[in-house]
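Internal tracking record. Fields below are filled automatically when a chain is submitted to the structure queue. Please do not edit lines marked as system-generated. If the sequence contains nonstandard residues, flag them in the REMARKS field before resubmitting.
Queue: standard
Priority: normal
Entity type: single polypeptide chain
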Amino acid sequence: MTAIHARSTNRDHRPGQHTHGPTSAAVPANPPTTHQLSDHALMGLALDLAARGPLPDPNPRVGAVITDAQGRLIGQGYHRGAGTAHAETVALAQAGTAARGGTAYVTLEPCAHQGRTGACARALLESGVARVVYAQADPNPVAAGGHHRLAGAGVLVEGGHRRAEAVALNRVWSRAIELGRPYVTWKYAATLDGYSAAADGSSQWLTGPAARADVHDRRAECDAILVGTGTALADDPRLTVRHPDGTLRPRQPLRVVMGMRELPEQAHLHDTDAETLRLTLRDPHEALAQLHDRQIRHLWLEGGPRLAAAFLRAGFVDEVLAYLAPTLLGAGRPAVADLGVSALTERLDLEIHDVTMIGPDLRITARPRGGTPQERQ
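SYSTEM-GENERATED OUTPUT FOLLOWS
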């Protein structure tokens, strides 16, 4: 049976959220050596630093720690967002010449490519560090290769230290890189009998204030919010991220409207509260390709039942976030339109990862069992 948690204890289920500190792991039955304990603790510090990085961002959150040849901490840093210095560069700048002969602890394999900033593998080589320890291998083929470059130059390189925690820290970003498209979270609100609107089309508000505040918290962690023109015309949504008092938050996701119909000039999506992108197309694959080109890693799908069905049929929903109100309608607009399922053997099975009460409402987080349809083929 899935446990039901209070809202205040569920922050660790947030995609990409990191809550583990250097001492979070249980002590093993056979205690490691002092050197291994030092590696464990120092990588824990790097993970905590990485968690300070921005979410969302086109780049992963990365932390780095430098020790000198005697194992003393001499530098630390984290990546503050696209276009800023990488974690290794920040930590090496603090360490200075004392890094020679020391060790670098990095939560992600040091990059080997020249982008808006220099390659971190090269910076580590130039610093003279004798050893590099990293947690997660870089899934990005453009940036990967730092391990081999460092090892080829005579640096002792060790990967996989506290890997699971590093992967959890950048779970959505890593999946987006592996998929070659944005990671898609489909959010919807519905009654217990599966309706998102009454027969007259009214839908505000099915869920309570606590659930709506939770939605804004989670919207804020996404790069873009997508709706179809049907929802845009029917509901005239703002698609902004707001505080409970209604004021705008400092950072706003990209608003994306997909479909062929034009929006009226007075539509909220034409205001200056956030940038809006119009995609005059109907194909989910093409929409995701264009968003991928804009370095959108996490897409929040908040359209109507037909748009949701189109993405589900195409296999482009990676996560379902359902807010269920303790209400019955008996008729109205369903949460999702026809999926083309005519028999139970054709159903799309989901695996539930979290069930949480938020005020009087229920939030369920689920993901396709065994991956998306494309991954299972």
